[in-house]
Amino acid sequence: MKEFNRIRDMGDFPEVRKHLLSVSDREVLGQTFEDYFGGQVFVVESIQDLHQIPTGFQPGEVDKDPGHLGLVGGFLPLSSTPYNYDMCEVIDNYTVILLITNNAGGPVWYVPNEIARHSENIERSIELCKGEVSGNIKKL
What we know:
Elements: E1 2-4, H1 14-22, H2 33-37, E2 41-43, E3 87-91, E4 94-98, E5 108-112, H3 113-116, H4 120-130
Parallel strand pairs: 2-5
Antiparallel strand pairs: 1-2, 3-4, 4-5
């Protein structure tokens, strides 16, 4: 997974760069993503990278709790369970996931759709964000 802290470093990902510029103002050019968005920006490069995207679930909060996958900052990874993220939607060739973790915002992950389509948990997370699944998904 690639991690970025400034828009100027995103030359290899022009579509992601363009999207970030479209949802921000020119101030983002001189600031870090941490300062501007409240978190880093990540671009997923493989299905294994989904093990590094946290949900808000701690161990024991969902029935299917595959502890063998490990935890991300004390939370279950997206590879183990879907989650109702603050944003999880398809934008052009990426699925964009936002997890607000502080007053300024939080980290953003760009998952190429060719990777996202292989993850049932991303599909379910998109449905949760759209409100297409009723209730919360604890105890799947």
